[in-house]
């Protein structure tokens, strides 16, 4: 019986491009301007490509799609021949400040408050697992008005990143759940690989992953998280 639902954040609960694409370009330009001595445009393009930016699109298998700020800092530090720890600190600070400053760009995928209220009414335990850091995640959930419905937050700040099973196990331990009582909802290959640690994974088409890619990992593909409930507000995976 499914009792717990772990949600990915970017691309699953919020529109990915609305928040991160423009901010990431700004971050790259700022770091290149600070650390590079020559070839600014070339280095900006190289970094963007390495972390997964192609114009205003994000590659579904990229660092930006499902990696951590630590992975991003390692890539950028290598290109700029800079200290990774210093770059990492700058990235985390920048992302939090950008999230707060541009909070109007945090666009929920549908009415998340209503969805989470219905899930809680059906006695589901709700968790969030994301490659983002804790401060950005906490701020985002409060901004969206759903923090009170979330029982667990797992981020790259306090657990090993997906697809490592640590956050799944922590969710179960914290909320008194068994592994086979938990499902994971996400939009990327990393999310689907992480889902293998639980009962099953559900792929959503609201983020970076294509149906063709996600279907290699799970038969459960929906347009968005709102399709978890049918028109009568019944959970579509009841009995799975």
Automatic annotation (TrEMBL):
SUPFAM superfamilies (UniProt xref)? HAD-like
What PANTHER family has UniProt attached to this entry? PHOSPHOGLYCOLATE PHOSPHATASE
Q: What is the protein named?
A: HAD family hydrolase
**GO MF annotations in UniProt:** phosphoglycolate phosphatase activity
Top-rank taxon of the source lineage equals Bacteria
**Where is the signal peptide, in residue numbers?**
none
Species this protein is from? Oceanobacillus chungangensis
Keyword Cytoplasm attached? no
Q: Could you list this entry's UniProt keywords, alphabetically sorted.
A: Hydrolase, Magnesium
Question: What Pfam families does the database record attribute to this sequence?
Answer: Hydrolase
List the lineage, top down: Bacteria, Bacillati, Bacillota, Bacilli, Bacillales
BP terms from Gene Ontology: DNA repair
């Amino acid at each position: 019986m499914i009792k717990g639902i772990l949600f990915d954040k970017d691309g699953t609960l919020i529109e990915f491009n609305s928040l991160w694409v423009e901010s990431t370009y700004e971050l790259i330009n700022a770091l290149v301007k600070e650390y590079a001595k020559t070839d600014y445009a070339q280095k900006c393009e190289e970094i963007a490509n390495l972390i997964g930016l192609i114009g205003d699109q994000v590659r579904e298998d990229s660092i930006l799609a499902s990696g951590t700020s630590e992975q991003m800092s390692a890539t950028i530090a290598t290109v700029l021949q800079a200290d990774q720890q210093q770059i990492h600190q700058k990235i985390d600070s920048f992302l939090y400040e950008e999230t707060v400053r541009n909070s109007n760009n945090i666009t929920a995928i549908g009415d998340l408050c209503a969805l989470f209220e219905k899930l809680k009414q059906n006695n589901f335990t709700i968790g969030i697992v994301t490659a983002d850091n804790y401060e950005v995640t906490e701020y985002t959930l409060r901004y969206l008005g759903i923090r009170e419905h979330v029982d667990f937050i797992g981020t790259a700040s306090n657990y090993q990143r997906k697809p490592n099973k640590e956050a799944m196990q922590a969710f179960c331990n914290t909320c008194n759940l068994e592994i086979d009582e938990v499902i994971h909802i996400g939009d990327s290959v990393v999310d689907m690989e992480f889902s293998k640690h639980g009962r099953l994974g559900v792929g959503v088409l609201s983020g970076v992953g294509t149906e063709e890619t996600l279907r290699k990992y799970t038969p459960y593909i929906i347009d968005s998280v709102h399709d978890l409930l049918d028109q009568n507000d019944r959970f579509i995976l009841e009995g799975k």
